[in-house]
């Protein structure tokens, strides 16, 4: 039996450029060794994403293009979208800075540009049309529970089926940055959703739980793929959006109130979740045989000169993020080539 290859992508706003650059290298190596023009979404059996990772997942899993959308995206095409459109999405006008300092009154950015881009990228495509199974995270602020967009459920239940533009909008509705997303399923049921990063900035463990129940031999039309796979049947590649180790000092926060805690608590929640999920998966894989335990990979690149702000899309910072991705590829080429070989071995 072949293993189920899983790609998991963290949240992190404009820092999504970093995993995008890394996956561009992986995609080119896959194509070269496979003598193929297939794209990154064709090589994985399952993709999970949160926030910016959820947007990338949507791009990678789009079906062949139609007149409404520009899909099916390669890793290189997807990262170019960030490089070209990031500044317009995270653009705060001068008046907003004056009447809404530190986003105390309303969200920092208008969702209009974001939604316009999603319409151009994804057209009228539905979640059920994705080329592979997926899990994309969000959180329902009305029913107060985690909401997972899964294409396997969308194919069998219209209540779980949504337009891809609404999936992308929901998973990226980061509190204080964008207003919550109000979206409808195909059946017309309304959901009020925010960024899945509030509970699963690293969605790799959510992906593991979802994959455990899926009948992959049927979903992928491949009898060599196991149904309801366990950890030993999975090859997991989990990619972060840059290590954030900004220290917060006791004297700065010992008398802090709600306003002063807003920035650090969001940063700590996201980083803490990503690190915890990595710890949990390492423990799971540590119980396997020596061969199988090496099939979990966590890539967390250093930011180097790039700033950690999720919304810093200045030309200088965008280039620094791209360079951080390229530097990680340069310094970890043998590891990435090892991952490529394992992906191809389980095709």
Task: List low-confidence stretches.
Answer: 93-106
Structure summary, number of beta strands: 8
> Oligomeric form of this entry?
single chain
Number of helices: 15
Helix content: 40-55%
Q: Please report the distance between the alpha carbons of the first and last residues.
A: 11 Å
Q: Provide the succession of SSEs.
A: EHHEHHHHEEHHEEHHHEHHEHH
**Which fold does the CATH topology refer to?**
Cytosolic phospholipase A2 catalytic domain
Shape: globular
- Main sheet summary: 8 strands, mixed
Mean pLDDT: 90
Helix-strand makeup class: alpha/beta
Please provide a written account of the structure.
It is a single chain. The protein is an alpha/beta fold and 347 residues long. The protein is built from 15 helices and eight strands. Strands 1, 2, 3, 4, 5, 6, 7 and 8 form an eight-stranded mixed β-sheet that branches. A hairpin with a 4-residue loop joins strand 3 (134-140) and strand 4 (145-150). Helix 1 runs antiparallel to helix 4 (75-89), helix 1 (17-34) crosses helix 15 (333-345) and helix 6 (112-122) packs antiparallel against helix 8. This is Patatin.
SSE topology:
Layout: E1 4-9, H1 17-34, H2 40-43, E2 46-49, H3 52-61, H4 75-89, H5 94-99, H6 112-122, E3 134-140, E4 145-150, H7 151-156, H8 164-171, E5 181-184, E6 190-195, H9 197-200, H10 204-211, H11 216-219, E7 234-239, H12 250-253, H13 258-285, E8 296-299, H14 315-331, H15 333-345
Parallel strand pairs: 1-2, 1-7, 2-3, 7-8
Antiparallel strand pairs: 3-4, 3-6, 5-6
Helix pairs in contact: 1-4, 1-14, 1-15, 3-8, 6-8
Motif (DGA/G): 195-197
Motif (GXSXG): 49-53
Domain PNPLA: 7-208
């Amino acid at each position: 039996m072949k293993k189920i290859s899983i790609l998991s992508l963290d949240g992190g706003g404009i820092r999504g450029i970093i995993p995008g650059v890394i996956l561009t290298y992986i995609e080119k190596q896959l194509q070269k060794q496979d003598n193929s023009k297939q794209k990154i979404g064709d090589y994985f059996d399952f993709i999970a994403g949160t926030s910016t990772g959820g947007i990338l997942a949507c791009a990678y899993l789009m079906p062949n293009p139609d007149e409404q959308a520009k899909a099916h995206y390669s890793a290189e095409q997807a990262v170019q979208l960030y490089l070209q459109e990031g500044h317009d999405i995270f653009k705060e006008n001068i008046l907003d800075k004056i009447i809404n300092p530190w986003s105390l009154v309303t969200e920092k950015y208008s969702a209009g540009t974001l939604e316009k881009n999603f319409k151009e990228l994804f057209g009228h495509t539905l979640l059920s049309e994705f080329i592979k199974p997926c899990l994309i995270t969000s959180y329902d602020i009305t029913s107060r529970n985690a909401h997972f967009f899964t294409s396997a459920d969308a194919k069998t239940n219209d209540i779980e089926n949504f337009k891809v533009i609404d999936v992308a909008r929901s998973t990226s509705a980061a509190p204080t940055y964008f207003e919550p997303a109000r979206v409808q399923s195909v059946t017309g049921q309304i959901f009020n959703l925010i960024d899945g990063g509030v509970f699963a900035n690293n969605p790799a463990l959510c992906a593991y739980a979802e994959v455990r129940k899926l009948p992959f031999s049927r979903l992928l039309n491949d009898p060599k793929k196991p149904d309801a796979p366990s950890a030993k049947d999975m090859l997991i590649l989990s990619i972060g959006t840059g290590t954030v180790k900004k220290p917060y000092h006791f004297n700065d926060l010992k008398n802090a109130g709600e306003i002063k805690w807003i920035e650090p608590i969001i940063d700590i929640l996201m980083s803490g979740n990503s690190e915890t999920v990595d710890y949990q998966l390492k423990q799971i894989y540590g119980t396997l045989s020596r061969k199988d335990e090496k099939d979990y990979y966590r890539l967390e690149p250093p930011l180097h000169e790039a700033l950690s702000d999720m919304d810093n899309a200045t030309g200088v910072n965008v280039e620094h993020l791209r360079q951080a991705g390229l530097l990680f590829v340069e310094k970890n080429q043998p590891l990435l080539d090892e991952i490529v070989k394992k992906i191809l071995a389980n095709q």
